[in-house]
Amino acid sequence: MVKEIGMLFKTEMVQAILAGRKSHTMRLVKPQPLYDVWRFEKIKCPYQVGDIIWVRETWKDFRALSGHVLYKASDPAPNDEMFKWKPSIHMPRWAARIFLEVLNVKPMRVQDITEKEAEQEGAFTLLDEIKQNAARRGSLTEKNHVGPIEYFAWYWDTITKSGFRFKDNPWCWQIEFRKIREVDCKGDQEMPNRRLISTCRSNMYMHYR
Length: 209
What we know:
Layout: E1 4-8, H1 11-18, E2 24-28, E3 52-56, E4 59-62, H2 63-66, E5 68-71, E6 98-109, H3 115-120, H4 127-137, H5 148-159, E7 171-182, H6 193-208
Parallel strand pairs: 1-3
Antiparallel strand pairs: 2-7, 3-6, 4-5, 6-7
């Protein structure tokens, strides 16, 4: 059964999705298995092929002044000292503008990621920042190579807690997706779930043939 699931994305990753640079996302398996040998069928992934992910991103309800919802990933902040963005975790379904269809899900350890998969995670969107941070730490020289996997490892460590860092090599769900809809949200009404799911199903044959 196709279902809709909200998923948190950082602003830079939303920008990568909008630019077509991101088609994969890694999410921690919860709970983590206790042993290396693990029967995955005992743990059900919350994301299944065909499901619809609505992107939860940093936003602001600005309908009273502009008639639209603002999104940090693509809209400049108004020139207002009192203006504050709302965290993605507080985004309701009606304010979502980006919808993704899950194409594939597989379990893997984070260190097993390939360069191609790292690129599909949105690699190099923060390359300059990586180099600046590494230079400040003295861990980057002209001979160092900063490739997709190095980028991904750095970014992974910025969004995960201690014990689940890249060096800890935790189990993850690798989720492949494609953007199926982007809307200009005015917040007038919430699009019925059955309409979005019907649209997704009608497109699946063309995508998988």
